[in-house]
Amino acid sequence: MSKSLKPAYLKIEPAVLAYERDKKGIYYAYVTIWTIIFAVPLFWLLDLIFLKEYWDTMLTVRLGTGVFTYLAYYNGLKRKVHFMTYLNVIVGVNMVVSAAICAWVPYGFALPYFLIFSVMVLLLNTTVYWEVGYSIFHVCVSYVVIIMLFGFKNNIESYSTLVTYGGGTYFVVSAFAILIAFNRYKILTREIEKNIVIDNANQQLLEQNEQINDQNILIEEANRRLRQLSDYRQNTLRIMIHDLKNFIGSNQMSIDLITRKSGNLTPEQKEILSYINMGNKKLHYLSGKLSDSAEADSGEVEYRYERFDAVPEIEAAAVSLVDAAAMKEVQLQFHIAPDAMFIQADKIFFNHILYKLIANIIRFTQKGTVIDLLVANVDDNCVIELKDNGLALGKAKMDELFNKLNNPNEAQQALNQTGFGFSVARQLTESMNGQFYYSCSEAQGNYYRITFKLA
C-alpha cells in the first residue's frame, strides 16, 4: 500500500498506542478474572451432579483454584505487576486444572465436562484482550495435558474414545476460540487507534477554537484602537484645517499688500516674507503632528474600563465552550447567582480571561470529568470559582502553567500562542486589579478562583 493512502491512525505514536491498549487490556483482564472466579460454583454444581462420590474432593480442588486466582489477582494489583503477567498465570493454572479434570473423569461423564470447558474457553477468548499468541499457548497447553493424562490413564488405542466423548468437541471449539481471539484483538486495536485519532482531532479543534477566540480578541482590540486613532486624527485634521485657513488669510493679506505696493522690496515686503516663513513652520509642525498620530499605536495592553454586569459575560464564555467540552466527554455544570454583579473592568479582556481559563481546564483534564462553575457575590466581590474532579495536576505543574509570563504586556504578545492560556488568564486578571488563586489536591481535584470588586 502506498504511504500516501495509509489511514491516519497508522501514524500514531507507539507509546500512546501502548498506553491505551494497556488501559483497555486491564479492564478486560478484570472482567475475565472475575468471570473465572464466579464460575467456580457452576463447575462444582457439575461435579455434584455427575461425580457425587468425589464431590468433596472436587470442591477442594475448585475452591483451591478459585482462592489461588484471587490471591494472584490481589498480589498483582498490590505489587503493581503488569496485568499481562498475572493474567497469564491465572488463565494458565485454570486451563491446566480444567483440562486435567476433563481427562481424569470416567468416559460416561466426560462429555458434559468437555462441553462446559469448551464454553469457558470460548467465553474467555471473547472477553480477554491480548495478542493471539497467548491464546494459542494456553490452548496448546490444555491439549498436552488432556492427551498426556488420558494416555497415562488409558492405552493409546482409546484416543478415539477421547474424541467421541467430548474431546473432539473441545478441540474444534477451542480452535475457533483462537480465531475469535485473533479477530477480537485486531478489531479492538483498530478501534483504539481510531479513538486516539478522534481524541487528537478534538484536542486540535479545541486549540483551534481557542486560537480563533484569541484572534477575535485581537481584532476587537485593534478595532477599538483604530477608532481611538481615528478620533485623534480627526481632531488633528480639524486643527490643520483651522491653521490652514488662518494661513490662507494671512497669505491673502500679504498678496494684497504686495499688490498695493510696487518697486523694490521694502520693509513691509520683508515682513510678508516672514509671514510666509511662519506659515512654512506651521506646515512643518502639522506634518510632524500627523506623523506622530500615525505612530500612536504603542502595542501595549491598554484597558478601557467600563461598568458592566459580569454575569452575562461569564455565561456567554462558558456556553461557547459547551460543545468543546462535550467532544472530550467533559461535563460543564453552572451554578450562577441570579443577581446582577456590576464590576469595573475591560469587557473584552474580561470575556477573554474566562474563555482562556475554561478552555485550558478542559484541555488539561481527563475524559469523564465534571467541571463546576460557581459565580456568587461574596463580601461585595464577584467571585468566580471553577472546580474539576479529575486527576490533580500537581502544585509544580500548576506553578509552571500559571507563571510562563511575567507581565501583562507579555500576555498581549502571547494571545495567539498555545500553551500560555493559564498564564494569560492570570496576568490579565491581576493587571485589571482582580485576584487570581489556584490550588489542587488528590481528594478534590483542581480549583481556580477569580475575584473582582463590585462597582
Question: Could you write a compact summary of the structure shown?
Answer:
With 455 residues, the protein is α+β, with helices and mostly antiparallel strands. The chain has 14 helices and 7 strands. It is elongated.
Topology:
Blueprint: H1 14-38, H2 40-50, H3 55-78, H4 83-104, H5 107-127, H6 132-153, H7 159-260, H8 267-294, E1 306-309, H9 310-319, H10 322-327, E2 331-336, E3 342-345, H11 347-364, E4 370-377, E5 381-388, H12 395-402, H13 408-413, H14 421-431, E6 435-441, E7 445-453
Parallel strand pairs: 2-4
Antiparallel strand pairs: 1-3, 4-5, 5-7, 6-7
Could you characterize what this model shows?
With 455 residues, the protein is α+β, with helices and mostly antiparallel strands. A five-stranded mixed beta sheet has the order 2-4-5-7-6. The chain has a two-stranded antiparallel sheet with strand order 1-3. It has two domains: 200 residues, no CATH class; 148 residues, Heat Shock Protein 90 (2-Layer Sandwich), CATH 3.30.565.10. Helix content is 69%, strand content 10%. The N terminus is likely disordered. It is built from 14 helices and seven strands.
Largest beta-sheet details: 5 strands, mixed
Q: Looking across the biggest beta sheet, what order are the strands in?
A: 2-4-5-7-6
The total of helices stands at: 14
Order of helices and strands: HHHHHHHHEHHEEHEEHHHEE
Number of DSSP strand runs: 7
Strand content: 5-15%
In whole angstroms, the N-to-C terminal distance is 66 Å
Roughly what is the average pLDDT, rounded to an integer? 78
Helical fraction equals: 55-70%
- Model regions low in confidence, pLDDT < 50 over at least 5 residues: 1-9, 413-418
Count of distinct structural domains: 2
Helix/strand/pairing category:
alpha+beta
The global form is: elongated
Radius of gyration: 40 Å
